[in-house]
Amino acid sequence: MKRSKVSNNVIRRLPRYLRKLDELTEAGISRISSSDMGQQLGLTPSQIRQDLSCFGGFGQQGYGYSVPALREQIAAILGMDRGYRAILIGVGNIGHALIDNFCFSDWGVTLSAAFDVKSELIGSSLNGTAIYSMDELERYLEENPVDIAVLTVPKDAALPVTERLIAAGIDAIWNFTNIELTGPDSDVLVENIHFSDSLLSLSYYISERRDEQQTK
Amino acid sequence: MKRSKVSNNVIRRLPRYLRKLDELTEAGISRISSSDMGQQLGLTPSQIRQDLSCFGGFGQQGYGYSVPALREQIAAILGMDRGYRAILIGVGNIGHALIDNFCFSDWGVTLSAAFDVKSELIGSSLNGTAIYSMDELERYLEENPVDIAVLTVPKDAALPVTERLIAAGIDAIWNFTNIELTGPDSDVLVENIHFSDSLLSLSYYISERRDEQQTK
Question: Does the reported pTM lie above 0.90?
Answer without folding.
Answer: no
